[in-house]
Design the sequence.
């Protein structure tokens, strides 16, 4: 049993026909984790006993001929910045190394409600700050396609787990690309939903106005299935949208002939790797062959996106991370002299370099005298970026672009230069700023056999259209498992 060759829907069908038991599958997942995760390092922790217990219960129900939920017995992995009661939630940070939350994130609860079995928590950049998973406070996750390369980040463990076959679906979170970049680098599918589509309850906050949970899987269909399950209003999250959740899976095959696809000229500029460009252009041809219309469009404020994002995200982070003071959560360092010293020592030892850098940047941007020049200005530019998209969606239904300007880079290549790491997010920053949904789908590999991701974006709450357009692409391009 190798999960790399099967999808969730096929697995459930095998259960239904009694060709396989959930216990066999979960046992083999842990065998695979033992074998491959020594090299890939996708997981921070696992929950073998509990997962096997859930599998046995599932098998009893299967044997009794009970109707099965859509994700019955499907092994899933959860990024370690989402809470699960009685399991550590570290956020990839030493400051939360021993933090065991008393509640479970709504998205995880809903996956479980649909029959999924959580097999473990996955590695990520500390507090989801990063693009490569190298900022984890514990260890670096490696790209299953090439162990010298990064898996992307910050949800690198989730994407690497799916790509190496140690889970079928994994949850990630995306604030500025953290679902889509790892999906692209690891050759799998990842969708960042509309802001508000999925409850953030139990997602440890990085930048609350940008953060969104979404699924990563090998196929669009599995992402659609998982998204359908985790979406919808939740009274525990006041920013979750009270909007009906369409039947994403049922509508995947809706015809896409005549769909207007915008190609933003600002995304095809210097810095875009030549092989990535070639594959994305080949992707455009596939859409033309499918009867879609391509139109060049402009998103003129794209050039301000990185600066805007790194002001807003750091400002929100500096405020959100103030709670890790050694009193209520996780690590507390001893101090002899004063409470101040305890705070200082705890934060000094608990946080890594990148997190400290962001807290400093954000505190600066919010401080009296600088607030108007930096934070307020960034909020105004954010509105301009949103308007770019609103105008574009008057002309087109979908926007197509690369997910990342390059393929997975080498481990260590960008760690010495934070700015070059920030710049690698150029294509995945604007969508969270505008709150729109976006998906990354595989569109081939480069000459070194490294995966390339094609990104599609849609207007708010148009995930149904987005998934359908992506699904037709993977079928037509032969990018299906
Ligand atoms: N790479 C971006 C950052 O470092 C985005 C991270 C994310 O989406 N969580 O902030």
Sequence:
């Amino acid at each position: 049993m190798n999960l790399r060759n099967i999808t969730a829907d096929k697995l459930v069908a095998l259960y239904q026909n009694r060709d396989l038991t959930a216990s066999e599958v979960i046992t083999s997942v842990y065998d695979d984790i033992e074998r491959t995760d020594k090299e890939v390092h996708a997981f921070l922790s696992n929950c073998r006993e509990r997962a096997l217990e859930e599998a046995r219960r599932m098998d009893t129900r299967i044997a009794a001929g009970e109707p099965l939920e859509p994700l019955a017995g499907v092994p899933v992995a959860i990024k370690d910045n989402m809470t699960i009661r009685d399991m550590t939630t570290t956020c990839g940070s030493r400051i939360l190394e021993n933090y065991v939350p008393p509640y479970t994130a709504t998205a995880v609860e809903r996956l479980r409600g649909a029959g999924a079995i959580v097999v473990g928590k996955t590695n990520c950049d500390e507090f989801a700050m990063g693009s490569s998973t190298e900022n984890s406070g514990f260890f670096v996750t490696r790209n299953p396609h090439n162990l010298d390369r990064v898996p992307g980040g910050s949800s690198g463990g989730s994407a690497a787990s799916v790509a190496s076959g140690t889970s079928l679906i994994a949850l990630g979170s995306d604030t500025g690309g953290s679902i889509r970049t790892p999906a692209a680098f690891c050759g799998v599918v990842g969708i960042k939903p509309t802001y508000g589509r999925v409850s953030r309850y139990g997602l440890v906050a990085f930048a609350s106005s940008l953060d969104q949970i979404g699924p990563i899987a090998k196929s669009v269909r599995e992402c659609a299935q998982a998204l359908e399950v985790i979406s919808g209003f939740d009274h525990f999250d006041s920013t979750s949208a009270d909007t009906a959740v369409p039947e994403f899976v049922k509508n995947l095959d809706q015809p896409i002939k005549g769909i207007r696809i915008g190609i933003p000229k600002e995304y095809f500029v210097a810095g875009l790797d030549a092989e990535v460009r070639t594959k994305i252009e080949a992707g455009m041809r596939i859409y033309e062959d499918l009867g879609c219309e391509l139109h060049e469009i402009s998103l003129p404020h794209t050039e301000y996106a990185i600066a805007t994002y790194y002001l807003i995200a750091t400002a929100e982070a500096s405020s959100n991370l103030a709670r890790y003071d050694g009193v209520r959560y996780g690590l507390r360092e001893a101090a002899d002299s004063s409470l101040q010293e305890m705070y200082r020592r705890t934060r000094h030892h608990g946080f890594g370099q990148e997190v400290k850098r962001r807290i400093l940047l954000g505190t600066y941007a919010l401080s009296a005298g600088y607030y108007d020049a930096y934070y307020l200005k960034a909020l105004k530019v954010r509105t301009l970026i949103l308007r770019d998209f609103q105008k574009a969606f008057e002309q087109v239904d979908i926007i197509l672009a690369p997910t990342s300007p390059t393929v997975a880079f080498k481990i260590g290549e960008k760690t010495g230069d934070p700015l070059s790491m920030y710049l690698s997010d150029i294509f995945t920053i604007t969508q969270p700023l505008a709150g729109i949904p976006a998906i990354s789908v595989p569109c081939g590999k480069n000459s070194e056999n490294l995966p390339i991701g094609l990104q599609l974006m849609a207007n708010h709450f148009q995930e149904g259209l987005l998934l359908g357009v992506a699904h037709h692409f993977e079928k037509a391009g032969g990018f299906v498992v």
